[in-house]
Design goal:
The chain is an alpha+beta fold. The protein is built from ten helices and 14 strands. Bound molecules: N-oxalylglycine (OGA) and nickel (II) ion. The site of N-oxalylglycine has 11 residues, from strand 5, strand 11 and strand 12. Keywords: Dioxygenase, Iron, Metal-binding, Oxidoreductase.
């Protein structure tokens, strides 16, 4: 366990120690300059009201989603139908977990990315020399019965029905969003939800402790999400930023909303109409931050490729077909590179 412990963040920091450990210090050549750290105001990332999604407002909502997916690959949603208590409960449980003494959490630690339940830091400790200033607990959550027994038993609230309830609710929401996104591409409503096998679902509980020297660390470094869509819940501490036209834009917390982003697989299905955008989470000196993304994925054996309906003479297929499993392995083994691994699947243009 010694190596695990030294790789973990120093959450139980001894008072008076106010330096970032070496394994978290990013190389000097790779430090951000000040203009890069500064983020613009986020009011420009659309907030879409889902009220009436199954009524008279559907066409209008779908148009807004299409526009957001083409331009930013990100949008925020309100009136999403998930009760406030369910959301509050999952946030509380995540907070309780990360505030447990390190010794109680350590038994969930693993640096093997193929494990379905694990506590770790960074993406892949085996291939990355410098870790991100983030701890995360990754949980598979579909089908629930297959994975619940692997979840932490501490804090005891983890064993209640709240985590499962949250997962089920977010899954229903994800399916509604995928249908709307299909329609926004001009595909039949169930194109994405029906064609990709029985679908996986994972959740991460991300914990960003206060950082004594944020400018020296990688925060959660820029990345795209490899799945279909991500539905992110964040607490009230700002940190999430997305890249638009070469500038980082902050998406500051708005109560009772979720942030939705397009992952690499929808970029492929849409034949590059929709964008899987680089995003990151910055850390700060004095406040911890918790975020809980749900990653909705195709099944491993699902065959992904540009939708036939979106390919024509003017828009030849940008990607070859591949299974999600193939993609997943490429993603987790790509080492330090932050660029999207979609490039490896592009068909060379004539
Ligand atoms: C992620 C992610 C953003 C955040 O976990 O993939 O992008 O705000 N998280 O923590
Ligand atoms: Ni992400």
């Amino acid at each position: 366990m010694a190596t695990a412990a030294t790789k973990l963040l120093l959450i139980d920091r001894v008072p008076g120690i106010n330096r970032v450990p070496n394994s978290y210090i990013r190389p000097e050549a790779d430090r951000p300059n000040l203009t890069e750290v500064e983020a613009s105001d986020a009011s420009t990332i659309p907030l879409i009201d889902l009220e009436g999604l199954f009524g008279p407002n559907r066409d209008n909502i779908i148009r807004q989603m299409g526009k957001a997916c083409r331009r930013d690959g990100f949008f925020q949603i309100k009136n999403h139908g998930i009760p406030e208590e369910v959301v509050q409960a999952i946030m509380n449980i995540a907070g309780e977990f990360f505030r447990l003494p390190e010794s109680k959490r350590l038994k969930n630690y693993s640096d093997d990315p193929s494990k379905s339940t694990r506590l770790s830091t960074s993406f892949n400790i085996k291939t990355e020399k410098v870790s991100n200033w983030r701890n995360f607990l990754r949980l598979h959550c579909y089908p629930l019965e297959e994975y619940m027994h692997e979840w932490p038993t501490n804090p005891p609230s983890f064993s209640g029905k709240e985590v499962g309830e949250y997962c089920t609710r977010v899954r229903e929401l994800a399916l509604k969003l995928l249908e709307a996104i299909s329609e926004s591409l001009g595909l039949e409503r169930e194109y994405i939800s029906k064609n990709l096998g029985k679908h996986g679902q994972h959740m991460a509980m991300n914990y960003y402790p206060p950082c004594p020297q944020p400018e020296l660390t990688y925060w959660l470094r820029g990345h795209t999400d490899q799945n279909l869509i991500t539905i992110l819940l964040q607490d009230d501490v700002p940190g999430l930023q997305v890249l638009r036209d070469g500038k980082w834009i902050a998406i500051n917390p708005i109560p009772n909303t979720f942030i939705v982003n397009i992952g690499d697989q929808i970029q492929v299905i849409s034949n590059d109409k929709y964008k899987s955008i680089l995003h990151r989470a910055v850390v700060n000196c004095d406040r911890e931050r918790i975020s809980i993304p749900t990653f909705y994925c195709p099944s491993p054996e699902a065959l992904i490729g540009p939708a036939q309906g979106l390919i024509d003479q003017e828009h030849p297929a940008v990607y070859r077909s591949f299974t999600y499993e193939e993609y997943y392995h490429k993603f987790w083994n790509r080492g330090l590179r932050t660029e999207c691994c979609l490039d490896m699947l592009k068909i060379p243009s004539a």
